[in-house]
Specification:
Length: 147
């Protein structure tokens, strides 16, 4: 079973690397969110992030960008986050927790645990619930480095 998990982890890493090489990330100070994915005629999709918010939240920003890559890898339609059902957001969180950088996952966990997150509790759950889900996803993927 351990070898299978390592194979899945390696496959996920290769997919994440391929995605990040193909999908441009664009900084937009006017974005009223941390990060979103949008369709793009040339690249298929682009990830737009707010560098000011990212500076405020530090390493957790990497988790949010990984979450957007999750939407791409999972073939979700590129809609505004509030348009996604809760299941798709949870799937993107799971993908980010499975493919992201452990320090960024942990930073997002603490951000959520301390109440930082989207105010859309219907989609994401309250921040503490999201923190616990993220922790469980990361443990399951062998990416957890926190308590």
């Amino acid at each position: 079973m351990k070898g299978f998990k390592q194979l899945i982890s390696l496959s996920s890493l290769l997919l994440a690397t391929a995605l990040s090489a193909q999908v441009p990330e664009i900084a937009d100070e006017q974005l009223n969110d941390i990060a979103i994915v949008k369709p793009h005629p040339e690249y298929g999709a682009v990830i737009i992030y707010n560098p000011s918010i990212c500076q405020q939240i530090g390493a957790a920003c990497g988790f949010f960008r990984a979450h957007e890559y999750g939407h791409i890898a999972l073939n979700h339609q590129y809609l505004h986050p509030s348009a996604y059902p809760a299941q798709r957001e949870a799937e993107a969180d799971r993908w980010a927790a499975s493919n992201g950088i452990p320090q960024e996952i942990l930073a997002a966990y603490y951000l959520f645990l301390n109440g930082g997150s989207s105010g859309d509790w219907q989609t994401y759950g309250n921040p503490q619930q999201r923190a616990q889900r993220l922790r469980l996803y990361a443990i399951d993927a062998g990416k957890w480095i926190g308590p």
